[in-house]
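Q: Structure tokens for this one, please.
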Amino acid sequence: MRHRDSDAMWLWWISVVGDLWFGVTWLLNQITKLRPRKCVPSISVLRDHLDQPDGGSDLPLLDVFINTVDPVDEPMLYTMNSILSILATDYPVEKYATYFSDDGGSLVHYEGLQLAAEFAASWVPFCRKHCVEPRAPESYFWAKMRGEYAGSAPKEFLDDHRRMRAAYEEFKARLDGLSAAIEQRSEACNRANGKDKEECANATWMADGSTQWQGTWIKPAKGHRKGHHPAILQVMLDQPSKDPELGMAASSDHPLDFSAVDARLPMLVYIAREKRPGYDHQKKAGAMNVQLRVSALLSNAPFIINFDGDHYVNNSQAFRAAICFMLDPRDGADTAFVQFPQRFDDVDPTDRYCNHNRMFFDATLLGLNGIQGPSFVGTGCMFRRVALYSADPPRWRPDDAKEAKASRYRPNMFGKSTSFINSMPAAANQERSVPSPATVGEAELADAMTCAYEDGTEWGNDVGWVYNIATEDVVTGFRLHRTGWRSTYCAMEPDAFRGTAPINLTERLYQILRWSGGSLEMFFSRFCPLLAGRRLHPMQRVAYINMTTYPVSTFFICMYYLYPVMWLFQGEFYIQRPFQTFALFVVVIIATVELIGMVEIRWAGLTLLDWVRNEQFYIIGTTGVYPMAMLHILLRSLGIKGVSFKLTAKKLTGGARERLAELYDVQWVPLLVPTVV
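A: Here is the predicted structure, written as tokens:
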């Protein structure tokens, strides 16, 4: 402060403000980690309380949401493996339903889901018979190491394993050939049926050869292209009966013996919402809000767990683990969601692009767990349905029931579906363990999937997942915390869920751009943490300020990088020669910061390599990605659209060598230029 250069005061001010910014943000980041809280689910206690001696269970109902858009960017094999792992998870089969949202309206996804349901008839009983882990066949059959056998038929395991693997290879081959088969079938049907009908000339046809696909056609046409097609809903697997149904004994046609295994499959529903020109369909958030309404009309479970199309259930006990926290008699009733960490396959051993992001998941979120809970990070999260309906948590509800109802609900808040509104009281009953039979008609289900349903309602604002911000996940979690709900962070061994990471540097940078741009959007929106009321814990508010302003550091960091080389441009060296007191001060500060970093690594259970990768990629992000995020906010503030955020592509490759080959495939993009400079 005492050594100012009057010829370069603008540089002096940037330096002083930059030091102040770094100091304050570091301090705020530390104080949110002062009370780390590690929560471990006791699944055995849950079984003792809720499993019945006769094989029944009092576990609550559960709806599972899985979302996908493009079968190219999100390969079908990953998506169908996710479906198979969900169908085979260790949860009472009659107590959960899976809702598959195909936001591209593709016949490939529809028929792929049919193939997956067909293969599940063998795969799910095989998993139950031999207690295999993980229950996604691609990961299971290619696993290098497996634990001890835990099934009930060890003598039959090798033969069953060999036959099941052969069946899976056949399933993969049919899945791979699905696009070509649909295209060939459609060409043949168009030649046979479209000679005198111009509108049929480019139609895509379903497997029966007589029905045109209602969704997106291979050759787009009016009413059958991306962004313009009617709603489609199909129940692929019906709600199973309450009583177990044993599978078939071994025979020449069916060599696998499932005569002592429950062969029931959970309910599976295909959804493609309506899309029309002139409507903003709100991407993933819009698709999940449609799932929320449709599931309320069909199964209406009090709890919901969501997945991206490339994530699968890696630990079959994961659903039970999340339920442990939701039913916890201490603070479970006030818990809006349980967030699991994101873990990935196909990441190189040193995780050079910091895909696992362990400093965030295993340190930052663990610290938040001791305050009001972690933020929602997009996938692998269990929600309480009524929390998404904007209900108040029990500890913040008014004592008077009429006052409570008036404070939560406003006219036309949820739309005009009477059946949906009538389903809400039942959704609040977390002890409801018997599904109610669906009594709504097809017309009402179709209406819940239309574009116009949300007009004039609170969907995307105070109801469901939030719209108009790239990071709809963080904003939705913040909205729940702002209302007074808390959340819980749950890490398990083995990992609860695993997914596919973007191992190409370019795709990883685009992913970080979407996150950082969305974070700044949130800070400058009505969801700014500074505007939240008293229900948000003070330290939780600080954490959200950190999570929404971190890209601002890019300005000061880039200036610091340029300071030592500015003499190259003007021939003047503005930086003072360090004097002894300042040098000692810098050494002490740096040593203290690094020491605290090491302590953080220790209590979070991380390695030094995790910390190094986090630091490396932070520098890459601040120089290459965050400046673009700042530009995005500047353009938005001027009323311009801003930067377009693209879906992160996941490539389907062969063996381990091919999977990691993309690490060295550098695709030049403008985001890389500042970092290289």
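A few notes: The chain has two domains: 8-35+510-675, 43-504. Residues 608-637 form the longest helix (30 residues).
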